[in-house]
Amino acid sequence: MTAAGAWIVSIMVMLAVGTAATLYVRLVLLRRDETAAGIVALSGMSWRQFIHVVLETLARRGYARVVDRDAALGDADFTLARDRRQWLLACKHGSAFVLGIPAVTELANAIRVQGAAGGLLVTQGQISADAYAPAKLQHIELLDGPTLWPEARELVPPEQLAAIRAGADQRARQRVLMAWLVALLAGVASFITLPRVDAPAPAIAPPPGSAAAGATAVDNGTLAAAPADAPGADPASVEQQREAVASAISTLPMVDRASWSTQSTLEVRLLETESDAFAAICPLMERYDALASSRVQLMPPEGSTQGPRFRQCRSY
Q: What is the pLDDT of residue 163?
């Protein structure tokens, strides 16, 4: 991967991590923080303030208070009416409560005694998981702090609600900032760890007439020198072609060096024998008619058990 590609991937990683974290903070953690602060606010209310909020919340659902058996201190039960049927309300004031099956059983007995249609058990605290199944059988709805707050938050004093939301929003902004810092680090880390291949440097053209220029012409598929059998070909141009071919073959990855041992034999020293050297050498030889039928002598690498090999790329 090129450096530009690595930068693009790194930026995409940073954006993906930062966006995902921001959505999680705004859609999940912000609500959770506001709910937690709201439960604290409900728990800090007096009993009468709390029961007023609960009754007002249920009134928005269509429940009307018909009987008040308020006690001087502590919790109280209330009888509500909706759709011409009676419902019992039991409130447990305080975030320390963890209501379970006993609280459900107590309210269920009161429902049977009064012939009510069902009931509601409300607390700012928690309700144990095993209480939900028997409550459903007894037509009792359970409302704990996280369930109650979304319905009751508009009933707390406006300045208190604004403070709760401001505190939750401030924590969310801090978390979003931290999330983008982590995203930036993730992008930098991906840029560092991604494998990269540098772009090849532009080739510099050799001086015209040099052996390197002839090799370049062979590699590019265009030969500057005229074929040896073309009209006007001379020994000097044939020698130039030999130098060009030897230089071009020397640049092949499996070749150590190439040189003409005689005018008709090109000796090629190999670096390895796994590749088909003739398949790479012959196209370069056949570009010149005068050299195409020359003999190629492949010499194995030092220490190899293979012997020399001879071949003509084109027969006479």
A: 94
Angle between helices 235-250 and 211-219 (to 10 degrees): 60
Residue 213 has pLDDT above 70, yes or no: no
Taken in order of first residue, the domains within the chain and their CATH numbers are 1-199 (3.40.1350.10), 211-312 (3.30.300)
Say if residue 143's pLDDT is above 50.
Answer: yes
With H, G, I as helix, E, B as strand and everything else as coil, classify residue 265.
strand
Lowest mean pLDDT among 7-16, 25-34, 177-186, 267-276: 267-276
Question: What span, in angstroms and rounded, lies between the C-alpha atoms of 251 and 245?
Answer: 10
Nearest C-alpha neighbor of 51 from the set 167, 152, 169: 152
For CA atoms 42, 102, 142, 172, give the dihedral sign.
positive
Other CB atoms within 10 Å distance of the CB of residue 152? 24
User: Which among 161, 217, 221, 210 is positioned nearest to 38, based on CA atoms?
Assistant: 161
d(CA 249, CA 294): 14
- Tokens read off for 146: 């996280």
